[in-house]
From TrEMBL:
Organism annotation: Streptomyces thermolineatus
Name of the molecule in the record: Uncharacterized protein
Source species, domain of life: Bacteria
Length: 196
């Protein structure tokens, strides 16, 4: 089992390539997008579980239910970003994160065209030539937001009811990862991610 090491000075193992691949495969079958930090956290959990199994003479190759385990650790790693919060985010917190998201989307690095929504609590991103068709007319722009009581999501701007959750931290770093995911969607790299 190959191990990826932390860039931090202690060089402790973080996650194995096999665990990351298992978590990534589990994520591809779920109706949400997972940013790299959430995938890495889940892979770290899975690597630790496999290591504990190894201490008890149960190597990962003997675990026939590994895919379910990968999904389980992915659910666990993503749970802080998708479920209703104990205390709702304030409007000021939503506005702060939305402003940061807008800055990331229009940055030179990501390079999308976007503007704040009317109440400054969401961003509308212009679609590109390779953006999957969607919305009532098939050519809707993309609405991206974070809710007061949950996580990040995006939708076609004229069909808010069909939302795609984006599992990412509610932080500036998370907003940047969401912007990266939206860039990939707008450029057609993810295909049509909305469930039929």
């Amino acid at each position: 089992m190959s191990i990826t090491y932390s860039s931090i000075a202690d060089d402790r193992p973080i996650f194995s390539a096999e665990a990351y691949a298992a978590v990534e495969a589990a994520a591809e079958r779920l109706p949400a997008l997972y940013v790299p930090s959430v995938l890495e956290h889940a892979a770290e959990l899975l690597t630790s579980l496999w290591a504990i199994g190894g201490e008890h003479s149960v190597p990962p190759a003997q675990w026939s239910w590994t895919e379910n385990m990968a999904k389980g650790v992915l659910d666990l790693a993503a749970s802080p970003y998708e479920r209703a919060l104990e205390t709702e985010r304030t409007d000021a917190e939503v506005t702060f994160l939305t402003d940061f998201l807008l800055g990331a989307l229009v940055s030179e690095e990501i390079g999308l065209r976007a503007q704040l929504g009317a109440r400054r609590d969401y961003v509308v991103v212009d679609r590109g030539p390779a953006t999957p068709r969607g919305g009532q007319s098939g050519d809707s722009d993309i609405l991206v937001a974070i809710s007061n009581d949950g996580g990040w999501f995006f939708a076609f701007s004229d069909m808010h009811v069909r939302r795609m959750p984006v599992m990412a931290p509610a932080s500036p770093a998370g907003a940047h990862q969401v912007a990266e995911a939206i860039r990939a969607f707008v450029h057609g790299e993810l295909g049509d991610v909305f469930p039929r």
